[in-house]
Design a protein that fits this description.
The structure holds 2 protein chains of 2 kinds. By secondary structure, chain A is of the alpha/beta class. Chain A has 13 helices and 8 strands. In chain B, helix 1 packs across helix 10, helix 6 runs antiparallel to helix 9 and helix 6 packs across helix 10. The chains are: A alpha/beta, B alpha/beta.
Chain lengths: ~350, ~290
């Protein structure tokens, strides 16, 4: 099965990596990273606010550059690969897709919560109509059983998606969880299947391999693992692992290591490690982008970040509910205040 | 007691049925007709309560001069057609679709300014929930930017909302500026499938010119009390607080549980607001007549 199968790799450094960067990549940084990745042979290079097109907001963090400026910085240097952007219906609209189509974007990933694919019908349709490829992206894949994930993937396919992704947005899945969901999706759809990992439990690369074994052929990585929570599958590590396993990719191993080490690492605000809060997110199944907002709310309301995360997990909050971090922190602070004599 | 004002509802779906329940217990309104395009559950529910029904035609409503207000809970496209017919027949249309043929109305904000309009648009559920807050903050502190995040239970988002989610974000964002008074607006909607379903929450962030927390709190508390007059389950979860020039506040909306379940505060607030508008119009006419 492992043989010489081709794996399509998408780099999300300039999108998921936008979270730990406080959505403040500069045009120079975007140009340098995108050029390096394109030269290293990445097939897909994703550029956007961490929460997708239209994500710049108080709730998710304001972007230093507009979506347009980010895409403009990347488009001229992405020559071999395809410039890709992400959009979450409910946050971005078709106006953003129209803008992206006019700025060299060739692939749109339309992301919804794992049970809500039907809010993406218009956006998938619009993407296809504008001549771009559309990938369906099911976030928080751990929150639904495999049959439900497969049902939602089929919906995406019926809307016209060219590829369907399962995303472990909370970095909480164990390899068997990944295998079960990816296998169920692969059995249900005829389009290729992808997997997007987070590293909160140090399983991002292992889970990516498990996804391939279960039938996936598209994987995401980020340089140095730069991404929300404890980050994503570390692209250069993933490249080496895929090579050792006998999978083929278009990526030049030395070149991708160099982009990570020489271009991305010097930009990073802190090393991408699995700190206590990221570990708790993986443990409690909480959306990885909540990390920095939780730390801020814990400080603002004088409560423990881990308590906030556990409560968010208990309430089954989904991606995009950053505002509920404030709600939980406030409620915890009230409870604490009330019990103080 | 003065005579009740007769109203009709077009569209006997979940929204239309909830409207009917609210009209049935209204002191100023009388349910005169329910219209639908075909025989349906909703038509049956209306008939069971002895309400005249019209199937596949609006004629009985248009031709009855005693019906003065018509709620439209169909679709934007259908409403554009209905709006012309209703106007010609001299009815006031209260539009619960995103068609926006007439001006936006949020009862606690601009209802008094709209006397005489023949068609009133109820914005969106998120607009009904958050425009009053933005407006209250704006009048106290001057709003330069307003942003809202609505989280609603997946079960209370029907196919209409799901297939046209961009309508929600665009219309709501526009209402934050047009009615709320902010210079720029942004709206975000998140569907959450948790079971048991979560009650609707709305977070409002506003950047202000005069960051006076006491004035902002007083203004917000005043408008919350006004909205509670027609939506008793409208509550502050996190009272407004300031960080620099940014105000953050969170409200929840629990439904009245008339026809729709209580977690569907998102649907309740728009039907309650629509009935509230009709009641205020009716009261105005009765006062004039008296």
């Amino acid at each position: 099965m492992t043989g010489k199968r081709h794996v399509h790799v998408l780099d999300a450094t300039l999108r998921d990596g936008s979270h730990p960067m406080g959505h403040a990549f500069t045009a120079e940084q975007i140009g340098a990273v995108a050029a390096g990745l394109d030269d290293a042979g990445l097939e897909y290079i994703e550029v956007a606010h961490g929460d997708g097109l239209g994500g710049s907001s108080i709730n998710y963090g304001r972007s230093l550059l507009s979506d347009e400026e980010m895409l403009t910085a990347a488009a001229p240097v992405v020559r071999r690969g395809k410039l890709t952007a992400l959009l979450l219906p409910g946050i971005g609209t078709q106006d953003d897709l129209e803008m992206a189509a006019g700025h060299g974007v060739r692939v749109i990933r339309v992301a919804t919560h794992v049970t809500e694919a039907d809010i993406a019908e218009q956006h998938i349709g619009f993407t296809k109509k504008r001549g771009m490829e559309a990938f369906g992206f099911l976030m928080m894949g751990h929150m639904a059983p495999p049959e439900k994930v497969a049902e939602q993937a089929l919906l995406f396919q019926s809307f016209g998606a060219d590829v369907v992704y399962v995303a472990d947005s909370a970095g909480t899945m164990l390899p068997d969880d990944v295998r079960a969901r990816v296998a169920a999706v692969a059995a249900a759809v005829t389009v290729p299947v992808g997997f997007h990992a987070h590293n909160n439990l140090a399983l991002a690369v292992a889970n990516s391999v498990a996804a391939l074994e279960a039938g996936a052929s598209y994987l995401d990585g980020t340089c140095r693992g730069l991404g929300a929570g404890a980050g994503n599958a570390q692209l250069e590590v993933l490249t080496g692992v895929l090579d050792k396993l006998g999978y083929r990719t278009r990526i030049d191993f030395y070149k991708v290591m160099d982009v990570a080490e020489k271009v991305v690492a010097p930009m990073m605000k802190r090393p991408q490690v699995i700190g206590t809060n990221a570990l708790m997110m993986g443990y409690a199944g909480v959306y990885s982008s909540f990390l920095l907002f939780t730390a801020r709310a814990a400080e603002r309301f004088g409560v423990e970040a881990r308590d906030i995360l556990v409560e968010l997990g208990r309430r089954r909050m989904v991606g995009g509910q950053e505002d509920m971090i404030i709600d939980v922190a406030y409620q915890l602070s009230q409870r604490k205040g009330a019990s103080t004599p | 007691m003065a005579d009740k004002v007769k109203v009709a509802i077009i569209g006997p779906g979940n929204i239309g049925t909830d409207l009917m329940h609210k009209v049935l217990r209204s002191r100023g309104l009388e349910m005169a007709a329910m219209a639908g395009i075909e025989e349906s559950e909703g038509i049956r529910r209306a008939r069971e309560r002895g309400i005249p029904v019209a199937i596949g035609t609006l004629a009985p409503i248009l031709e009855d001069p005693s019906i003065r207000i018509v709620f439209d809970a169909t679709s934007a496209r259908a409403h554009v057609r209905h709006a012309r017919l209703l106007e010609k027949a001299g009815k006031i249309a209260i539009d619960l679709t995103p068609a926006a043929v007439g001006p936006y109305v949020v009862p606690s904000v601009n209802l008094s300014a709209l006397a005489g309009a023949a068609n009133l648009n109820m914005v969106t559920c998120g607009g009904q929930a958050t425009v009053p807050i933005v407006y209250a903050i704006h009048r106290a502190a001057g709003a330069t930017y307003a942003e809202m995040v609505s989280a609603i239970a997946s079960r209370s988002a029907g196919p209409g909302t799901r297939q046209n989610i961009d309508e929600f974000t665009r219309t709501t964002a526009r209402a934050l500026t047009v009615l709320g008074g902010a210079r720029r607006g942004k709206a975000i909607i998140v569907l959450n499938p948790a079971e048991p379903p979560l009650i609707m929450t709305n977070t409002v962030y506003v950047e202000v010119e005069r960051p006076d927390e006491t004035a902002i709190r007083a203004s917000v508390e005043r408008i919350v009390a006004e909205v509670q007059e027609y939506v008793p389950g409208y509550r502050l979860r996190v009272p407004p607080y300031l960080e620099g020039n940014r105000v953050t506040t969170i409200i929840e909306v629990e439904g009245a549980g008339d026809f729709l379940p209580k977690y569907s505060g998102n649907l309740d607030i728009i039907t309650a607001a629509a009935v509230g508008v009709a009641e205020k119009l009716a009261l105005g006419w009765q006062e004039k007549a008296a």
